[in-house]
Amino acid sequence: MGDGDMECFGPAALYLRKPERERIEAQTKPFDAKTAFFVVDKEEDYLKGVLEKKEGGKATVKTIEEGGKSKTVTVKEDEIFPMNPPKYDKIEDMAMMTHLHEPSVLYNLKERYAAWMIYTYSGLFCVTVNPYKWLPVYDAVVVNGYRGKKRIEAPPHIFSISDNAYQFCLQDRENQSVLITGESGAGKTVNTKRVIQYFATIAVAGGKKAEGQQPTSKIQGSLEDQIIAANPLLEAYGNAKTVRNDNSSRFGKFIRIHFGQTGKLASADIETYLLEKSRVTFQLSAERSYHIFYQLMTGHKPELLEALLITTNPYDYPMISQGEITVKSIDDVEELIATDTAIDILGFTAEEKLGIYKLTGSVIHHGSMKFKQKQREEQAEPDGTEVADKIAYLMGLNSADMLKALCYPRVKVGNEFVTKGQTVPQVNNSVSALCKSVYEKMFLWMVIRINEMLDTKQQRVFYIGVLDIAGFEIFDYNSLEQLCINFTNEKLQQFFNHTMFVLEQEEYKKEGIEWEFIDFGMDLAQCIELIEKPMGIFSILEEECMFPKASDATFKGKLYDQHLGKTKCFEKPKPAKGKAEAHFSLVHYAGTVDYNITGWLDKNKDPLNDSVVQLYQKSAMKLLAFLYASHGAEAEGGGGGKKGGKKKGGSFQTVSALFRENLGKLMTNLRSTHPHFVRCLIPNETKTPGLMQNFLVLHQLRCNGVLEGIRICRKGFPSRIIYADFKQRYKVLNASVIPDGQFIDNKKASEKLLGSIDVDHTQYMFGNTKVFFKAGLLGTLEEMRDEKLASLVTMTQAICRGFVMRREFVKMMQRRESIYSIQYNIRSFMNVKHWPWMKVYFKVKPLLKSAETEKELANMKENYDKMKSDLETALAKKKELEEKMVALVQEKNNLQLAVASESECLSDAEERCEGLIKSKIQLEAKLKEATERLEDEEEMNAELTAKKRKLEDECSELKKDIDDLELTLAKVEKEKHATENKVKNLTEEMASQDESIAKLTKEKKALQEAHQQTLDDLQAEEDKVNTLTKSKTKLEQQVDDLEGSLEQEKKLRMDLERAKRKLEGDLKLTQESVMDLENDKQQSDEKIKKKDFEISQHLSKIEDEQSLGAQLQKKIKELQARIEELEEEIEAERAARAKIEKQRADLSRELEEISERLEEAGGATAAQIEMNKKREAEFQKLRRDLEESTLQHEATASALRKKQADSVAELGEQIDNLQRVKQKLEKEKSEYKMEIDDLSSNMEAVAKAKVNYCFEEKNIC
């Protein structure tokens, strides 16, 4: 697409694609592929450089830094990466680069970002970098520029992704989804708005909603206006400033835009996920609460300040002023106008609008309520009623009743209600919970109302879903909300990996490429299972919420016991100065996050003061009463809609369980669509336009799969071309291989062509429909093609120049001859012009010309008059034709309207006509058949009279057969009852088998406990042995000291020589006993190891038994399935019997009719005789079918009895085996106990010997 083609994008063209002049300059820029490299750098990660030399596995590179600085570094050869040729600078699709690696991707994004080209393709997905400033790339001109264009026909843009999804919808009739993901502050919300803007612009249905469709509201906007207007309202109540993002979505949303049969906008709906309601009552110092609070306090609408009883100073309200109160990049006045306008466009009534604002104002006032402790009591009481009066006025309540319900709530104990006292912290927590609940319910209600407005009741054929969900978050203080958000991003990343990498490799197998499946290191299953699987974090959290005495400490203890040291993704946090306390850490794909579990149990249970909720239900404000109308029903029987009544009550429907359920539905929706991925990147932490921090961008590229996509490109075959295109494009490299005028298969032609070119033949593979290339080879082929074309163009230019010069030479020779001729004629004229006759000729010739001129003037005048009359006639005719054309156009429009209005009637008439024609044909056939039958009956009427008596005899025999059939049916009914009894017996036997399995499971658990106790005893004995060893070491040291003292005093204490020898003998005896004990310890260790091995064998046997039990469970399920099949067959028999009875009744009725016809008409037809024979044959067939089904059921029942007996015998054998194993383990346990007793007695003997030795030593001293 050249500069001329880019004119359709208007001023945005500069921000979408580099100019053609710059592209040409890049292609002619000098470049040495042998020396241009990227080199690893500690500060900037990667730098550009020039290779100076390579030797000994080392490379010396002179770096090229910004500002002209340079330095020479020596690194390993695997730390330098080749640069791409200049023609790949700022390339729009990074998968097309010759050299695919981290630095080439980073610098391509960096250079495009420096030129404000924020969108770039990377294979199958789009990468966008937050510019932190407004760019003119989203105007209506740009929308029209991308409309209907393929991805390769226009520069990268979010509009191109949107249009491709829309075109896929129209072509494939398949639902699409656009997943806009990335970290918080990367620009997901802005891109989501642009996607919605694009669909609302290109797929306008062209009409408003029908009046009366929503009788409760006055609709002021069309469907596309309402879809766009939903965003400001949701942003006001769902977005807030965070550390990294001034307009961060604190909730997830999945917007489905539905289209009709022709691709026009039909309706839309929004699903929301996990509103961060804790932000209503708490914000960090660098953050602020939801935008709506600060919009209302701008004072732009004084009537709202007066109605809500608030001021313009946010610091008057502690709950919303814990952090910042203004944001530089957001104008709260303009946002308030947009929010108020959106409410009107979406069709909220004036009462609903006022109710929304009043509830928002009441939430603001909740944070100003104060309570104090009564003297000498722990009971809380209000510290003033001014704020409570304002809240009660706004919410339509009684102030005294509300304060009483807060300080003295009524709780149900058994079957009675009692009044409970509350402390000041308890009341404050209750107030916080109530205002968070009001805000959340109001937000969810607004979403429901928006969906009602967007539902036009038009036909929905397919939809495009746009997902905008909170990005990955790592804050100083991370709570349950951050865990849910990060878990959602883990699931989305897993879905992305499967779609991008697994399906890419499946493409190779589909094309017949020899390829071994590679795990590219992005498997997030371990972290996901740690959070969501049984005994995971959510499971333990929900389990703790069921126990009244559970606390944060017990929750933390269970987490550590279950996962610390057992799961790589679960770690103990390292304490850091200046940061909030953390209780555990999780290793996510985007980094390690420290979580604080304070208050998680209360957040998950989400308790409310029921006494205040009852006041809400009786509120004079209709909106508040409606929001809490179903609260009591939810608390008592929430979740009772499932079958079997196995789901827990509403009190156990925790926040985490509801979140997992919604997330599961979202993933199901996404898997049913064709996804399109947009990856948003944060360029820097300071929100500076145009600045890109290499380490930050590389971290995101690694985490969100962009670099993994590049890695699979390098190992796989990123470039592919269908055979016909490859043959057409690269035939120029060796045209002699593919002769003209001779048919040759495209695949064979491509194989021959590649085989004749001097390239690495291991770098490409031939698939079924395409040829696949390794990274870089296609670039090499392109360079070879460019060189070939350059030589061909040079040769063509030489030929053309020679041809042009030869033609010019011929013209020059012709001009030379002409000059000679002209010169000759001029010389001749100069010689004759003074002749007398020539003078006469000069005078006469003009006179002849004047006479001819007068004649020509007369002819011209005559022609002028004629043309003037013709012109007048033509003008009159033109006017007449114009009038006719206007009439015809009007008539054409009328006819078009008539055709449009009559088209449906015409189609209905055609259908009716076709039906009438078919009916006519059928009736004519029936008439012809009836006529033939009438002729046959008239001919055979005489013969039927003679056969009347014979037919009556056959009728009597038929009646006897019917009686026999009734007896057979009764017999089948008895057999059916017998089969039902057998099924019932089988069911009872299965129940007994279940009981025996449960008993075996209990015994297995007891054995495991005994085994664990044995291991604990062994550990205790090992501790004792270790203590004994330490004592022995200490004793030996004391003996050494004693021997030294004896040597020093040998001369002074000669009289004690005998006693010393005696002690030495005792010492030897003690040492021998210690050696014996060491030998005993070694033997005990060997026995313990042997027993451990035997126990492991027993455990493996137990696991085998468990697997056998699982197999038995599977067999039981198969038997149950077979029983259900038998029951279905019984039902089928019942239906067959009913059908037979019905047929018998019909036959009886037909027989009676035949008899009446014979008596009335005096005879019957041959057709009736044939019909009776046919009915008799049907009876015989039904009888045989019943007999066969009965035999089959008996065989099935006997087979089931045999299988059940075999399974019972197998279970009995397994029970005996388990009992034998149990007895053996108990025997081994008793042996262990005996060995432990022996070791204890040995230890006691050693202790006594030690005491005696010490005593004797004291006596000697």
Write up what this structure looks like:
The protein is α+β, with helices and mostly antiparallel strands and 1261 residues long. Helices cover 62% and strands 10% of the residues. The strands form seven sheets. The protein has a seven-stranded mixed β-sheet, sandwiched between helices. Strands 4-3-2-1-5 form a five-stranded antiparallel β-sheet, with no helix packed on it. Strands 18-19-20 form a three-stranded antiparallel β-sheet. A hairpin with a 6-residue loop joins β13 and β14. α16 packs antiparallel against α17 and α25 packs across α26. The longest helix is centred in the C-terminal third of the chain and has 111 residues. About 3% of the residues have low confidence. Keywords: Actin-binding, ATP-binding, Coiled coil, Cytoplasm, Methylation, Motor protein, Muscle protein, Myosin, Nucleotide-binding, Thick filament. One of its GO terms (cellular component) is myofibril. This is Myosin heavy chain.
